[in-house]
Design a protein that fits this description.
Length: 337
């Protein structure tokens, strides 16, 4: 987004769209009507001077400072191609109202944000945020950094595989961790948990019927404290390394993975159960609390009590090339038993 006298002379790549902020009608004379531009007017008079049709998209910038200017922004929906809003207050309530009203309109809503934190919060308004955000930066590196942070919050697709159970047994007492999140799991979701970097099994969230206690739809009774859990961008973390505000992946039986925030890790001494599986030539294992109410997904996506899993059963798993350093995959020779 540039002023009228800073429009690039040469055409930019197709994926780069140029917007021009125009503060008075006379500035329109500086623009080439044959160029594909988005012309953002700063007031009604300037907007009225922007021609309809042609190669220009018409837009309006509105500073929302009170209820009256918020209603002005709502009234512009459907009458302009792009609505760019800048808010005086930190609350997201006016943005929520504008985004809600825009659902049935053709107008693209853009919010001006001031930093990467503001952008990440804005992205979650009404779950989806506005159509786009405008961020002023001083270096290209700031854009790269924000893009990386946004990518860490996107939905991923994991390649889940079948793992054949080769051994199941009670192994005695140990510390296990429940991963309590700030989100609610779906019935087909859980967390990938494994003892080695070669892979793990999909452990269910506590969203299925329990006769003696209320459900905990925010929780996965994940496994022994040494275990890896899968996190965004192909990384893992030890259960003991997780803390409030960090992210893990909520993974469903089709492999769709979404980041969820950790609210706390609840660690207690409990009886433990070892479930060992084979994936091709690789052996993996997951250690969970030895109680029937801890459940895992089998290869068909059915919920299975851990105490009912038997040798020969096939479970839903993830397979990975072994070798990690602080959760990051590395290429090295490694043997884990």
């Amino acid at each position: 987004m540039v002023p009228p006298d800073a429009v690039p002379d040469t055409a930019l790549p197709d994926r780069v769209e140029v917007a021009v902020l125009v503060t008075e009608p006379a500035q329109l004379d500086k623009l080439d009507p044959s160029r594909a531009l988005t012309v953002i007017a700063a007031d009604h008079a300037t907007l009225a001077a922007v021609p309809h049709g042609g190669r220009w998209r018409r837009g309006r910038w509105i500073d929302v400072t009170d209820a009256e200017t918020m209603q002005e922004a709502v009234a512009a929906l459907g009458h302009v191609d792009v609505l760019l809003v800048s808010f005086a207050d930190e609350t997201n309530i006016p943005l929520e109202l504008i985004v809600a009203e825009a659902q049935s309109q053709r107008t693209t809503v853009v919010k001006r944000v001031h930093n990467s934190v503001d952008a990440l919060v804005t992205r979650g308004v009404l779950q989806h945020g506005p159509d786009a955000m405008l961020l002023r930066v001083s270096t290209p590196g700031e854009v790269v950094r924000l893009a990386r942070e946004l990518l860490e919050r996107r939905t991923e697709q994991l390649d889940l595989v079948e793992a054949e159970v080769t051994a199941v047994r009670s192994i005695g007492m140990g510390m296990r961790g429940c991963v309590d999140t700030t989100d609610l799991f779906e019935p087909d979701e859980g967390i990938l948990v494994g003892s080695t970097s070669s892979g793990g099994l999909l452990v269910c969230a506590e969203v299925h019927y329990l006769p003696y206690m209320n459900l905990r739809p925010f929780r996965v009774n994940a496994g022994a404290v040494h275990s890896y859990v899968w996190t965004p961008a192909g990384r893992t973390a030890y259960i003991t390394d997780l803390s409030a505000g960090e992210q893990v992946l909520a993974v469903n039986t089709a492999g769709r993975a979404r980041p969820v925030l950790v609210g706390r890790i609840k660690t207690e001494m409990r009886p433990l159960r070892l479930i060992e599986c084979r994936i091709g030539d690789s052996t993996i294992n997951t250690i969970v609390q030895d109680d029937w109410h801890v459940r895992l997904f089998d290869a068909a996506g059915a919920v299975t009590n851990c105490t009912a899993i038997a040798v020969g059963d096939r479970m839903l798993a993830i397979s990975a090339v072994p070798g990690r350093h602080v959760g990051i995959p590395v290429s090295e020779s490694i043997k884990e038993n």
